[in-house]
Amino acid sequence: MVPTARRLSSAAFRTAAGPRPGPPPRGTGAGPAAPRRTNDTDHTDHTDHPDDGAAEAASGPRPSPRSLLAPYRRLFAVPGAAAFTLAGLVGRVAGSMLGVGMVLMIATVRDSYALAGAVSATGLAVTALTGPLLGRLVDRHGQARVAVPAVAVYALGATAMLLCVHYGAPAWALFVCAVGSSGVPSLGSMTRARWAAVHRDDPAARHTANSFEQVVDEVCFMAGPALAMVLCTAVFPEAGVATAAVLLVVGTLLFAAQRRTEPPPRTRATAVSGSGSGSGSSGAEGSLARSPGLRVVVLTFLATGAVFGSMEVATVATVESYGHGSASSAVLALQAAGSCVAGLVFGALPVRGSAATRFLAGVAAMAVAALPLLAANGLATLTPLLFVAGMATAPTMISGMTLVHRLTPPTRLNEGMTTVYTGLLVGISAGAAAGGWTVDHLGPHAGYTAPATAAALALLAAAGGAGRLRRSLG
Question: What gap in Å lies between CA 181 and CA 313, rounded to an integer?
Fold first, then answer.
């Protein structure tokens, strides 16, 4: 047994599971629409104009300072919204448990963090490769028809992994099981797809839904890894992965059963009609990578993911250097709380300016907020700085997902969002590695050099591509 459970931080190991925030792909098609009001402004999902903020604001209620939750109550007034949200939440918490549970299980039973990290990295690589492919299948065939068989394959792979670990199978068998249990469509992505469908004629409601989903992501990645750690250390090593597998299967099946809010799959007719949608899109069957605007977002999210991955590693190392290693998870949870607060407020306020401008402003705020972390000299200064840094996360992610929605043909939203999500995923892995190298070679107090550098690169990518982004949006 490896006696290092106290040193394990949920956020440090969730980089092995895949991205934190990060909202993956959306769905497509025309689902049930919210009732339109006489002052609604008719905008498509994939166009952007200099005054789109005013149009979006006009299409939704302007919340008063005393009623910031009113837009969120309006979201759940749609029949079936609460049902698919709660069903998806079960599986999304499970997804956030997998990385930590896998690392702890293998490291504890096999007494090797190197093996645990390698197996987890293999699963991460397969997820990055299969994500866009599964997104395309969801677009073509529908959420239930793809998610149910995919989660069945996952269940077989996870069961095989548990048996191999428990009965001491060779190391190569663990890698095979990791490959077999890595191709599950993201419930967070499909939840966003449903919001996009039920509010397809209401940009303000879609903005609020994006904000709500970002907050849900943060909550899941605070609660899930902590639950996995407790199960693995207090029950038995395989308990975290076993519980996550059960919850993921149950959550996916419950989500797939909510058929009335499921976006219809793309048909040949909609694929043809969607091929010209969006000036920055590449058509129904071409490569989405041909969109200059989408490439800008992917590159920016690659650097943004590096911010997330390196900041988590740097925070764990820095807090331990202060002599408060057991507080690492709480400190990182405070950073996520800052993102939650900002996301809730951002989603309730009326939208101002274009989506491209909001995205650039969010990335700039993220870069600025990372700099003061270099001057932290104790827990009392680090925690508020991390809270402020976290507040820049949600608006950046929300604006970025809005851009992807507009840059991608409506018949390929799942694929488009997963493509961007893959960039975030790769960035998190690279950022975690860069953060670890920085801590090892420059010391824990220099650890925040890595996220500050990554944030500067994200700003450079967003600012340098701002012109192409606006031209792609039209």
Answer: 26
**Binning pLDDT at 50, 70 and 90, where does residue 149 land?**
very high
Residue 8 belongs to a domain: no
Task: Say how many domains are in the chain.
Answer: 1
Q: What percent of the chain has pLDDT over 70?
A: 81
Locate 14 and state its tokens. Answer: 């969730």
* Cα–Cα distance measured from residue 392 to residue 299, given in angstroms and rounded to the nearest whole number: 18
Q: Which of 162, 135, 310 is nearest to 244 (CA)?
A: 162
Average pLDDT over residues 184-210: 84
Count of C-beta atoms within a 10 Å radius of residue 428: 29
What's the confidence (pLDDT) of residue 77? Answer: 87
* CA dist., res. 187 & res. 256, Å (int): 10
The C-alpha atoms of residue 309 and residue 459 are separated, in whole angstroms, by 17
Specify the pTM: 0.73
Give φ, ψ of 200 to 5 degrees. Answer: -65, -25
Q: Residue 309: inside a domain, yes or no?
A: yes
Degrees, nearest 5: CA angle 385-388-393: 125
431 lies in some domain:
yes
In degrees, to the nearest 5, what angle opens at C-alpha 226 toward C-alphas 452 and 68? 70
Tens of pLDDT, residues 111-145: 887 788 788 888 878 887 888 888 888 888 889 99
Half-sphere exposure at residue 206, Cβ-oriented, CA atoms within 13 angstroms: 28
Q: What angle do CA 437, 439, 443 make, to 5 degrees?
A: 135
Return all residues near 113 (Cβ < 8 A) that are at least 6 apart: 2, 103, 107
d(C-alpha 372, C-alpha 381), whole Å: 10
CB atoms within 10 A of CB 436: 20
Q: Is residue 413 part of a domain?
A: yes
Q: Tell me which residue range forms the domain holding 149.
A: 15-28+46-473
Token digits for 48? 């952007």
Element (H, E) at 424: helix 413-442
Q: What's the average model confidence in pLDDT over 441-453?
A: 90
One-letter amino acid of 446: A
State which amino acid sits at residue 465: G
Kindly write down the DSSP assignment for every residue of 25-88, as one continuous string: ----S--PPPPP-TT-----TT---TTHHHHHHHTS----TT-TTHHHHHHTTSTTHHHHHHHH
Pull the structure tokens for residue 218.
């943060």
Residue 55 in tokens:
């149009």
CB 7 within 8 A of CB 320: yes
Asked if 73 and 213 touch (Cβ cutoff 8 Å), the reply is no
Provide Rg for the chain, Cα atoms. Answer: 21
Q: Which of 176, 183, 178, 98 is nearest to 133 (CA)?
A: 183
- The CATH number covering residue 318 comes to 1.20.1250.20
